[in-house]
Design goal:
alpha/beta; TIM Barrel; schiff base; DeoC_typeI; Deoxyribose-phosphate aldolase
Length: 223
Amino acid sequence: MQINQYIDHTILKPTTLIADIEKVCSDARHYKFAAVCVPPTFVRMAAGLLQNSGIKVATVIGFPFGYSAVEAKLAETVLAMVDGADELDIVINLIALKNNDWAYLANEINHLLPVIRSKEKVVKIIIESGILTDEEIIKCCELYGVGGVDFLKTSTGYAEKGASVHAVQLMRRHLPANVQIKASGGIKTYEFAAELVEAGATRLGCSASVAIVTGSAAGAGFY
């Protein structure tokens, strides 16, 4: 399996340096990763470094906890697209979910999706599957599947549990065929990455991307 083509090479730590972004983009070119995922601050820089490479630039919205106001997420989204983001990884309002306020979540995506679609960008919705029940994951599949997002994404990498084969399989069973799955959080080895792909993931968010594709030991990292 050519795992590199599934990987969003990611750095989202709060102490990210310019040198880190240069390294991530260089790695992405060398290993031909699908995308890089960088903090909003560095979207413009990454877009410049990856110009004409075919590698997408992703960033995060409402990260990592998701409880920003819809208006704040909308402002983040617009700025990210102006700066050159191709893909938006948006954390849902988990407080709303845990309080069973599905109307809030529907309103949130209904405000964000048309703006992103108007610029023909890719939408990935992060649901934080590791802290959700199976029933909550299924409800997310129903809501965002109908909403017409491009990807449902397992995790931010900041919760106590990240991606799992079970969550990916559950999502695949309950999502429309046209909605893809991005697994992220705690993916450190080729073996685990391959399991997630076999379970139905078509993207992998990894900070240990180089270790995964080269078979070397993965160190600690965010995501």
